[in-house]
Design a protein that fits this description.
A hairpin with a 2-residue loop joins strand 3 and strand 4. 42% of the residues lie in helices and 9% in strands. The protein has a two-stranded antiparallel sheet with strand order 1-2. It has a two-stranded antiparallel ribbon with strand order 3-4. The protein is built from twelve helices and eight strands. The relative contact order is 0.06. By secondary structure, the chain is mainly α. The two termini are 28 Å apart. It folds into three domains: 142 residues, no CATH class; 112 residues, no CATH class; 86 residues, no CATH class. Helix 5 runs antiparallel to helix 6.
């Protein structure tokens, strides 16, 4: 396996610059050949699949490398057993059984932990599904059972790969902060000494915000993406009476990992401190600012004689039209379909994808706009 670099491509005797992404893994057989006399070798299909990974959301070079190593190790093992990579289902299942036993009870330095094995199984399943869809393979070696997945308030039917190993429950591996360290951290964020008295050496600003945000992060365990993109309307209301029981803290799908909504918990003290900051300190800090949102007039001025580009233009136009109606604005060019252009469809076509590709932004206005701009730059790059 090598990693593609296009440096010096002018001396490669090719007509144009290669379109392979920089850093993309390239699998090569031991004899440095990609085909036999009458047919291409499976390594050609593997490299094609790797090059298409960015079109299905795998954008990191580290992800490409993990996928390439998983497929390479599987191929090497099958070759040692004299089983073709694209054999029939019966032979592939035999190879999978041997491979599972090898990774579970083989030489110690070749064994996989359950998490590593499950990752390899997911990668190989994705590869064989792609190969079957492209007509390169007759079948995949995996067997599935139907299950019902519940995400927040929604339930749907899912398929479970029977080759997956069982793993310990996530709470078994969680490492909690010690209470004394947590108290020390919150005191530091508030500019206080460990005993709670003000620290004259502290030169921080917005100490109430820092402590309220830190207490929120510690109490809820929000992921970085969830914490960064959290909005004020998404903060749950404070109960009328103090309670020792944890308070549900819904995490919306727009910021949750994988777009799956979930519910975490927060203590009454942490939520009360956050509401105190939102009611008192935040308005006090913002009172002297002369900045105000552009509003309808600003939006109309910015978009005058221009086409509004949006990743999902129909959805964004619908949201803006609904907001205009809510404020009594019935006639505006922002609701006119001719003033909008969609980016999702041409981006999916540019990536030769059979389905609409997700934007992959931060699911907030600025993050989605920046990500859409990157898609446009890549689509128009020479």
């Amino acid at each position: 396996m090598i990693f593609f670099r296009r440096d010096g491509w002018q001396s490669w005797d090719v007509k144009a610059r290669p379109v392979i992404p920089e850093g993309m893994p390239v699998l090569v057989d031991d004899d440095l050949r990609f085909d036999d006399v009458d047919s291409e070798r499976p390594v050609v299909a593997m490299n094609r699949w790797l090059r298409e990974l960015p079109t299905v959301g795998a954008l990191a070079q580290s992800t490409w490398e993990k996928y390439a190593r998983a497929v390479r190790d599987w191929t090497i093992f099958l070759t040692q057993q004299q089983i073709p990579v694209f054999a029939d289902r019966k032979l592939l299942k035999v190879g999978l059984g041997l491979y599972a036993a090898f990774r579970a009870a083989g030489p110690v330095h070749r064994r996989f932990a359950a998490s590593t094995w499950n990752q390899h199984v997911s990668i190989l399943a994705a590869f064989y599904r792609w190969a079957v869809a492209e007509g390169l393979a007759q079948a995949e070696p995996f067997t599935y059972r139907a299950a019902r997945g519940v995400f927040g308030d929604a339930a749907r039917e899912v398929q479970v790969n029977l080759a997956i190993r069982r793993q310990p429950k996530p709470h078994v591996r969680i490492k909690y902060l010690e209470r004394d360290f947590t108290d020390l951290l919150l005191c530091a964020l508030a500019g206080r000494r460990p005993d709670g008295t003000p620290d004259p050496r502290c030169r921080g600003r917005h100490l109430g915000r820092n402590r309220a945000g830190g207490h929120l992060a510690v109490a809820t365990g929000l992921r970085l993406q969830e914490f960064t993109n959290l909005l004020v309307p998404e903060i749950p209301p404070l109960p009328a009476r103090r309670t020792e029981a944890p308070i549900p803290f819904p995490v919306p799908a727009g910021v949750a990992k994988g777009g799956k909504p979930r519910t975490t918990w927060i203590s009454y003290d942490a939520l009360a401190e956050l509401h105190q900051y939102l009611r008192l300190e935040r308005p006090a800090f913002a009172a002297g600012s002369d900045w105000r949102p552009a509003g309808r007039a600003g939006a109309l001025r910015v978009t005058k004689d221009r086409i509004v580009l949006a990743y999902n233009a129909d959805y964004d136009r619908g949201v803006i039209t609904a907001d205009c109606h809510r404020h009594g604005i019935r006639r505006t060019r922002l609701a006119d379909l001719s003033h909008w252009a969609d980016v999702m469809v041409p981006r999916s076509d540019h990536a030769h994808s059979r389905r609409w590709l997700r934007n992959g932004g931060g699911h907030r206005a600025l993050g989605d706009v920046e990500q859409t701009r990157q898609h446009l730059l890549r689509m128009t790059a020479p």
